[in-house]
C-alpha cells in the first residue's frame, strides 16, 4: 500500500484484493498489446467506487497503458465474476507507477556521491 491516507481497513483489504486479482487477470489476457505489465499497487476512493491501479510497464509504454484502460471494463467484469462476495466492483483506472523510477534515481545519486567520496 502507498501509505495510510485516511482509508478504512475495508478499503485497504479491497485494494489488496484488486491488486492481486487484477495482476492475475492481466497475465491471462490474450491481447498482444498488453505485455510486460506488473501491478504494483491499488488505491480505493473513499466511497469504494473507484480504484486506481498502479502498474509498471516496460519502457513506460503509453500504448500499453491505453490498451489497459481500454480493457478496464472487461477486467472489471472478470473481477466481478471471480469475487461474487464483493458488494460492488469499483471502476478501474490504470496509471504508471513512478515510484520505482524515483527510487532508482535516488539510488544512482547516492552511488554517485559514494563514488566521489571514495576517489
Estimate percent helicity: 40-55%
| CATH C-level class | Alpha Beta
The CATH topology comes to GMP Synthetase, Chain A, domain 3
Largest sheet: 3 strands, mixed
The CATH homologous superfamily is termed K homology (KH) domain
Shape: elongated
Q: Termini distance? A: 39 Å
* Helix and strand sequence: HEEHHEH
- Report the structural category: alpha+beta
Q: How many helices?
A: 4
Mean pLDDT: 85
Binned strand content: 15-25%
The overall number of domains is 1
Strand order of the largest sheet: 1-2-3
Number of strands: 3
Q: Which short descriptors sum up this protein?
A:
119 residues; alpha+beta; GMP Synthetase, Chain A, domain 3; 4 helices; 3 strands
